[in-house]
Amino acid sequence: QFELVESGGGLVQPGGSLRLSCAASGFTRPNYARGWFRQAPGQSREEVSCISGDGLTYYSDSVKGRFTISKDNAKNTVTLQMNNLEPDDTGTYYCAIAADGRSCQRVTQWGQGTQVTVSS
Questions:
Q1: Which of 50, 24, 46 is nearest to 35 (CA)?
Q2: 64 C-beta neighbours (distance < 10 Å), count
Q3: CA distance 11 to 94
Q4: Is the pLDDT of residue 1 over 80?
Q5: Which of 29, 48, 88, 92 gets the highest tally of CB atoms within 10 A of its CB?
Q6: How many CA atoms lie within 13 A of 22 on its CB side?
Q7: Which has the closest alpha carbon to 45: 118, 120, 117, 113?
C-alpha cells in the first residue's frame, strides 16, 4: 500500500502560475501511469493531464499549451506546472496513479486533493 500526497495548490490571479507536486510514498513502480484530475464545484472530475510509464504525455484541450506534466522516477514524484492560469482552472486537483501504464483512464489510487483557486 502506498500514499499519494499533493502539494502546491493555492490562490493565484488570472495569468499567474502554480506548480503542483505529488509524492508517492512507498511506491516503486515507474511503469505505472501518473496523472492529474480536477473537480470544480458542482461538476464531475475530469482528467487534466497524464504521463505514461514510457513518458508519453496527454493534456486535455482546455490546458494544452499552458500546463506541463513531468515525473521523477528516482524521487517517485510527478509535477504539474500550470502557467497562464484562468478562472476556469479553479477546482480541487487530484493526483492519480494507474496500473495500466499506458493511460490514466483506470485509476488505481487517488491523492487527497489540493485546492487551486484562480481569481482576481
A1: 50
A2: 10
A3: 16
A4: no
A5: 48
A6: 31
A7: 113
Position of cell 502554480? Answer: 18
Map residue 80 onto helix, strand or coil.
strand
Residue where the block lists cell 510527478? 78
Q: What angle do CA 17, 92, 38 make, to 5 degrees?
A: 85
Distance (Å) of CA 8 to CA 71, 101, 106: 15, 25, 25
- The number of CA neighbours under 13 Å toward the Cβ of 119 is 7
pLDDT at 32 over 80: yes
Could you give the CA distance from residue 12 to residue 9 in angstroms, rounded to a whole number? 9
Give the ranges where the chain is alpha helix by DSSP (H).
none
Output the nine-digit C-alpha cell for 36.
492529474
In contact, 77 and 95? CB cutoff 8 Å: no
